[in-house]
Amino acid sequence: MNIRQSVLAALDQTCGLMDRPSLAPIALSGGDFSLSDLDIDSLSTYEIIMQLEDEFGIDIPPVALASAASLADLVAAVTLAVDAKA
């Protein structure tokens, strides 16, 4: 699974991304969307971070997710953390 797919899986598990008719087609087609559309709260933020950290064996500072405005921003932050580990 690539990083984008893992981020989408984490967003789906914590925020029900694929249950949202306005966002699921965008996510599945490779498009970008604003994370504010998911109404991510602090608990969801923690769950997303933990899931991605466990999957990739990395550390993601919570500010990385908090400062990510879009799906592309979040994928970039995770990619940066994965690359820094290598």
Can you give me a brief rundown of this structure?
The chain has 86 residues and is mainly alpha-helical. It has helices spanning 3-15, 24-28, 42-56, 62-66, 71-85.
The general outline is: globular
Helix segment tally = 5
Q: Structural class of the helix and strand makeup?
A: mainly alpha
- Main pleated sheet: none
Rounded mean pLDDT is 92
The number of E-state strands comes to: 0
Distance between the termini: 17 Å
Going by CATH, the architecture would be: Orthogonal Bundle
H/E element sequence? HHHHH
In the CATH scheme, the class would be Mainly Alpha
- What share of residues are in beta strands? under 5%
CATH-defined fold name: Non-ribosomal Peptide Synthetase Peptidyl Carrier Protein, Chain A
Radius of gyration: 12 Å
What does this structure look like?
- By secondary structure, the chain is an all-alpha fold.
- The chain has one domain (3-85): Non-ribosomal Peptide Synthetase Peptidyl Carrier Protein, Chain A (Orthogonal Bundle), CATH 1.10.1200.
- The chain has helices at residues 3-15, 24-28, 42-56, 62-66, 71-85.
- The radius of gyration is 12 Å and the shape is globular.
- It starts with a helix and ends with a helix.
